[in-house]
Amino acid sequence: MLLDLFRSDSYLDLIIKLMARVFVVFCTLPIHEFAHALTADRLGDDTPRLKGRLTLNPLAHLNLLGSLMIFLVGFGYAEPVPVNPRNFKNPRGGMAITAAAGPLSNLVMALFFALVTNASKLWVVTGGGTLASVCFSFFYFAAVININLAVFNLIPVPPLDGSRILNLIIPAKYYFAIMKYERYIMIGVLVILFTGILSTPLAFLSSSIMRGFMWLTGLPFNLVR
Q1: Could you give the number of structural domains in the chain?
Q2: One of 32, 33, 81, 206 is an active-site residue; which one?
Q3: pLDDT value at position 13?
Q4: DSSP-derived secondary structure letter, 216
């Protein structure tokens, strides 16, 4: 993803890609974490509220390394929302639902941005000029990065959201045995991600989802033409 920035066709294209990443870091990453916090709160855990995480304020959620990763590889994360599963009526189910809320919010945002991208595309075709092209590129990249975030966070390794969902599938004793090595596993994932071994299949999956979203949200505009 970093190389993609420098392969931009023009300075304008480079600026648009950078601005899309800034938008994701300061607007959509906080929504991802807010979705976790709100879901946990609705399920009976007030820990996120007490820790000041039930907010859309980006400063309450951002993680320096996770934010830099958005710019470097197109995948990243924010500061995890603290959750106490003992406050849920069903601890394992509550944790899984809370974990799934973050990636789901990214997919919803990506679907919305894909819709706006198709609207901008129609604007370009009908003579919208440079502004229409800028809007098309900006919202396209925003949609792609949101899908990247959803796909990355659904990887079933700690501390990513997918590991919390995995807790519903595997026996608790194995899950907690894996969680003991959470920090080392995450370091390993980051190393693999930066080498490109993991980013290639993730990018393929993200691209497939993006094509599906563009096709789906483009249907109403095909009727207009």
Answers
A1: 1
A2: 33
A3: 78
A4: H
Residues in the chain: 225
pLDDT at 82 over 70: yes
> Model pTM?
0.85
**Based on the number of CB atoms within 10 Å of its own CB, is 133 exposed (0-12), middle (13-18) or buried (19 or more)?**
middle
Could you tell me the residue range of the domain that residue 164 belongs to?
Answer: 2-224
Q: Known catalytic residue: 33? A: yes
Q: Rounded to whole angstroms, how far apart are CA atoms 148 and 31?
A: 15
Give the span between the Cα atoms of 62 and 46, in whole angstroms.
20
| HEC sequence for 32-67 | HHHHHHHHHHHCCCCHHHHCCCCCCCHHHCCCHHHH
Give rounded-to-5 percent helix, strand, coil for the chain: 75, 0, 25
At a CB cut-off of 8 Å and minimum separation 6, what does 131 contact? none
Cis ω for the linkage preceding 159 (within 30 of 0): yes
Distance CA 62, CA 154 (A): 19
* pLDDT for 7: 55
